[in-house]
Amino acid sequence: MKTAITPTRQENFSEWYQNLITAADLAENAPVRGCMTIKPYGWAIWELMRDQMDKRIKASGVLNANFPLLIPIDFFNKEAEHVAGFAKEAAVVTHYRLKMIDGVLQPDPEAKLTEPYIIRPTSETIIGEAMSRWVQSYRDLPLKLNQWVNVMRWEMRPRLFLRTSEFNWQEGHNVFATHEEANEDARKMHKMYGDFMRDVLAIPSIMGEKTPEERFAGADHTYTLEHIMQDGKALQAGTSHDLGQHFAKSFGIQYLGTDGKLTYAWTTSWGTTTRMMGSLFMVHSDDDGLVLPPMVAPYQVVIIPITRDENVKQLNEFANKIAEQLRNIDVRVLVDDSDMRSPDKMWKWIKRGVPLRVEIGEREMADGTLTVTRRNLGKSSKTTVDVAEFVNSVKERLNTIQHDMLVAVENRNKTMITNVDSLKDLESALESGKIGFFRIKYDLTTNEEFDGLMEKYKISRRCLDDNDPSFVFVAKSY
């Protein structure tokens, strides 16, 4: 059977993913090494994700702010343990002016900065410095901040949306008077992420705490959300960190308590990135292209008039009247009245994952009907309905698609989690080519034998099982 994306997922999942991004016109490699240009359709998906999450962040009592892109290197020296994880990825600004030398623009040797700046790989340090000034008294707490920005981490093996040198994200940084409040908040934001991914992206997450070996540098606890891709690999979709007093002591974040004493505060940080988009695409899409949950589809409905030369005007007008009715009930809709061939239009929107595709021909216009196809079910879902019935039922149809996509992933995930009782069983499963997550006693992974398996099979500990933290999930990952 012919498909739009070749090779198929079964033939070569990695290449299928790259071709999917191109076919859906989501992004392309930029002329800057390791970076990507997110194209308008891809950016529209990110905006919908961002706006939905921003509502949830603000509902948690967090305020948005914006901090500088450039961070003094001295700030990083104050937090050496934390920065060690980013040191090899740091992009450094050393000059403040260019000069024409031998006919070529180059950094001016006389414009070297006395202190280099780091292009932010993360903002704990510069936000910590601000918090040390903004927090003076217990009355200033809790302080909850978030920013939506881009960051830079020099990536040696870039892949669109999954790993790029520059990417977009939100990073939250909160300050509390007690450790109990801080840990509760880290868990609260962790749950917020899980709810968002389930309700908006139709992706159930494997949620749990990172093991000591894998936790964020400088954190007391790291909580993660892991997604299972269709090829069985893990993708970390978001993290929330209980930072203890580590950063507060490094940057002097203290408050005057009710007892009149200065006390170091407790901080958290939490973040998600455009990597979630890679997860969204790999979890749901098929060999014909994207499959998008209605919540984040730039167009939830695309109407395609099937025209001939003599009826173009009438059919386009009929289609636009229907579109106006849908817009009036807050459905994102597009009428594709371009001069492309009808089959080409259909394939275009199949590849872009539009949840509902509507076709209108001369017969439908005469009968007051239209033909509707659900993207996640393909041709088997094609039905003809009255225009009024479709307008009245369209939101229910979209909700059903959203629900069905979540259930489909939940059912698939159940087949991709395997319980193993020993390292021998784990190796046998890996050796046989079994894919997915492996659930094993954490104590069995704290030895050299497991280290050898990690090296041999390129697996890692993803997170402890929230339901029983004596177990850990192990998997290959992106």
Keywords:
478 residues; alpha+beta; BirA Bifunctional Protein, domain 2; Rossmann fold; Translation Initiation Factor IF3; 3 domains; seven-stranded mixed beta sheet; five-stranded mixed beta sheet; globular
Please summarize what this structure is.
The chain has 478 residues and is α+β, with helices and mostly antiparallel strands. It contains 14 helices and 25 strands. α2 (40-59) packs across α6.
Report on this structure.
- The structure is a single chain.
- The chain has 478 residues and is of the alpha+beta class.
- It has 3 domains: 13-284, Bira Bifunctional Protein, Domain 2 (BirA Bifunctional Protein, domain 2, 2-Layer Sandwich); 294-413, Anticodon-binding domain (Rossmann fold, 3-Layer(aba) Sandwich); 417-476, Translation Initiation Factor IF3 (2-Layer Sandwich).
- It is built from 14 helices and 25 strands.
- Strands 3-9-10-16-13-12-11 form a 7-stranded mixed sheet. Strands 18-17-19-20-21 form a 5-stranded mixed sheet, with helices on both faces. Strands 22-23-25-24 form a 4-stranded mixed sheet.
- α2 (40-59) crosses α6.
- The longest helix has 28 residues, at 387-414.
- The radius of gyration is 26 Å and the shape is globular.
- The model has no long low-confidence stretch (mean pLDDT 95).
